[in-house]
Write a structure and sequence with these properties.
This is PspA-associated domain-containing protein. With 92 residues, the protein is α+β, with helices and mostly antiparallel strands. Helices cover 46% and strands 14% of the residues. The longest helix is centred in the middle third of the chain and has 18 residues. The protein is globular.
Length: 92
């Protein structure tokens, strides 16, 4: 799966990593629902850090279509809330 982190670029994530990312996505959703800015920021950074850790960075000149777009690390709760789908940021 090709994932774009807005403002950073694209990474390729293996299907074996999706469950871990979904767990972090669920924690992020809960933080958004609680409205706690500190917890939200922590969970957003944890999700993005994990994507960077498990993903293989694609070259900047790569033109692969992104299957998933994640917000930048400095996104607000409201911005991320607007990006949420029925199953969070990461489907599955």
């Amino acid at each position: 799966m090709i994932v774009r982190i807005m403002g950073e670029g694209q990474v390729e994530i293996g299907s074996a990593e999706i469950d871990v990312l979904n767990a972090l996505d669920s924690e992020l959703e809960a933080a958004i629902e609680s409205g706690d800015e500190a917890v939200f920021r922590s969970k957003l950074h944890a999700l993005l850090d994990k994507v960077r850790e498990v993903g293989q960075t694609l070259p900047d000149d790569s033109l692969e279509p992104s299957e998933l777009i994640l917000p930048p690390a400095d996104a607000s709760i409201e911005e991320v809330r607007e990006m949420l789908g029925d199953s969070g940021l990461i489907p599955g």
